[in-house]
Amino acid sequence: MPLPLKVLFISQIFPTPVNPTKGVFSHQLVHGLMNYCDVRVVCPQPWFPKLPRWKFLERWYGYSLIPTEYDIDNIPVLSPKYPFIPKWGDRYHSFLLFLGLVRYAYVLRRRFRFDVINAHWLYPDGVAAARLARFMGVPLVLSGLGCDVNMFLFEKHKRGPILRALKQASRATVVSEELKTHLLGVGIDHDGVTVIRNGVNKQLFFPRDQTESKTILGLPQNGPCVLFVGRLAEEEEKGLRYLIEAFQELVGGKKQLTLYVVGGGPMLPTYHELVRHQGLQEHIQFVGPKPHQDIPLWLGACDVFCLPSLREGCPNVVLEALSCGRPVVASKVGDIPNLIGKANGMLVEPGNSHHLCKALDIALTRKWDQVEICGSVGTLTWDTAASQYYSVLLGACSDV
């Protein structure tokens, strides 16, 4: 019987003891891959001093609490630290990350003689992994997920290193046809790029009774509700501002309508102030970040899920909402137009709050077929995605 393929999976977008909800999709993919090959995870993180005086810098101090080695759901993770200075270090981010990786290169190889490196997120992770692959003399597969392709690839100081890494890689994967089109447009070989959509954990995300879900969460039973789930990052790529503006127009005729915002991030105070300024405190509730296992209850409680993003790859939360039988109102970006049709939701132009208001108004009054919505993502499982990644990784090794 042949020995299993040994894969070194590198990504900063992976759960940590400090942030267990970060990169849940990567975690689920690794779980799936473990059914096909032997996988070790490397999740590099910036070094930060563990000194009480720095606790006020909450975002950065959290890095000091992440151990060099830890387990997440029985998956061993190595988290090498690397030097990084915010803002100043961005131009050199990939090289600094490589320095963190290379310190552990031979230790890694002695523990785990990997056959191939698979890096998820092109910059800085993928560029650093390309250096490591050259240093160790192993094939490389790069995986683009969203903004690393549709945004970073067109930023001056990141474009060159990303292109060189992609041309070095034996194969590349992306999560949508749109991202593949971007790669082909910058000269990456068509046959070397494979589209692999994300999956859904069907044991966790399935249709639930709305009344029961609201009761468990302690939400009022009366009135329709809309759900938003996402990180509230500085770039505002999730488009929550437009959803808040749409709600100001929408609540005029729906006095009991509520929007629940699940998620946290540096933009949270800004959104709080926007809601206060527009007098929407009774209609928009910020409930903070929630564990991944709680999201199905929130989806079960809502009438419509909304994701008004300005950019996307293949957003897992849309797949999860559909798998829970909830209609989705979302922007025409990334892979979303390939996931949403007349039977399971509505598409809107990104950045258009009036159009978003009209779509939500229709979605909230329409009668939807929950079974049909759930069936629209019936084939998208993490096992299917993992088997496709395995084929690409195996192909990369056979190219050598």
Write a structural description.
The protein starts with 5 loop residues before the first strand and ends with a helix. It folds into two domains: 6-199 and 381-398, Rossmann fold; 210-375, Glycogen Phosphorylase B (Rossmann fold, 3-Layer(aba) Sandwich). The protein has 400 residues and is an alpha/beta fold. 40% of the residues lie in helices and 16% in strands. The protein has 17 helices and 16 strands. It has helices at 24-33, 58-64, 93-102, 105-111, 122-136, 147-150, 156-168, 177-185, 210-217, 240-250, 268-277, 295-301, 316-323, 336-339, 353-365, 370-375, 382-398; strands at 6-10, 38-42, 45-46, 69-72, 75-78, 81-82, 116-120, 140-144, 171-174, 193-195, 225-229, 258-262, 284-288, 304-307, 328-331, 345-348. The longest helix has 17 residues, at 382-398. It is globular and about 65 Å long. It has an eight-stranded mixed β-sheet, sandwiched between helices. The protein has a six-stranded parallel β-sheet with strand order 13-12-11-14-15-16, sandwiched between helices. Helix 1 (24-33) packs across helix 17, helix 9 packs across helix 12 and helix 10 (240-250) packs across helix 15 (353-365).
Outline:
The chain has 17 helices and 16 strands. It is α/β, with parallel strands linked by helices and 400 residues long.
